[in-house]
Amino acid sequence: MSNIDYDKAQEYIVSLVPPREPEVQKMEKYAEENDFPIIGPACGYYCYQLARMIGARSVFELGSGYGYSTVWFAKAVKENGGGVVHHTVWEEELSKRAAGHLSALGSADVVKFHVAEAVESLSRAAGPFDIIFNDIDKEAYPNSLPVIKEKLRRGGLLIIDNMLWYGQTLDPNDHEESTEAIRRFTRDITTDPDWIVSLTPMRDGMIVACKK
Ligand SMILES: C[S@@+](CC[C@H](N)C(=O)[O-])C[C@H]1O[C@@H](n2cnc3c(N)ncnc32)[C@H](O)[C@@H]1O
Questions:
Q1: Å from CA of 61 to ligand 1 middle
Q2: Average pLDDT along the chain
Q3: How many other C-beta atoms can be found within 10 angstroms of the C-beta atom of residue 106?
Q4: Residue of 40, 60, 67 lying closest to 156 (CA atoms)
Q5: Centre of ligand 1 from the C-alpha of residue 134, in Å
Q6: Distance between CA atoms of 198 and 189, rounded to whole angstroms?
Q7: Is the C-beta atom of 130 inside 6 A of ligand 1?
Q8: 203, 42 in Cβ contact below 8 A?
Q9: For the chain, how big is the Rg over CA atoms in Å?
């Protein structure tokens, strides 16, 4: 196991993802050129797979950026027979950009756009949701958990990004607020008997947790 080159493994995993539509490739190129932290093709495809597997029809995203992760959930929801994907971000410009991409892909009809603080927005949403995806500022992860737990249906999935935090989570000398918040969130969810949790080391590490 120790002979596995992490970066090479990631490249290999990405190479297995089927080709994306030109509009999606455009979004990936923008992220690369502007250093914007999207979840990327492997995690995007994984989210799509999970959403298809559970037949998700209602998804709430916290921290949606310009809609790259949204594209994958919207594709799954449409293929599952239709429903809604909530896109939430506090930058109006990103919300508008996301709407443009989703329209170009013919998926805007299943997406609702909210320009708002994401956890507050979730707490006001009706729910319960089949999937809640969390990619907000890491310092806010711990306080988002009780709201997520309340709004997710039993058997629903929480997917949360950046659990390895580019290696900082594993560094015992790293005590940045964001790193400590990720550690606390991980402790909270893995010690709560109401969740079945696994962390997959894809890209920056994603937790997938099923609410019992
Ligand atoms: C990591 S990026 C999102 C990437 C997106 N999930 C993707 O993979 O395409 C996080 C975005 O959410 C915004 N954000 C962070 N914390 C937020 C919060 N609490 N409420 C709303 N937006 C937030 C950030 O400013 C940024 O635009």
A1: 9
A2: 97
A3: 13
A4: 60
A5: 9
A6: 10
A7: no
A8: yes
A9: 16
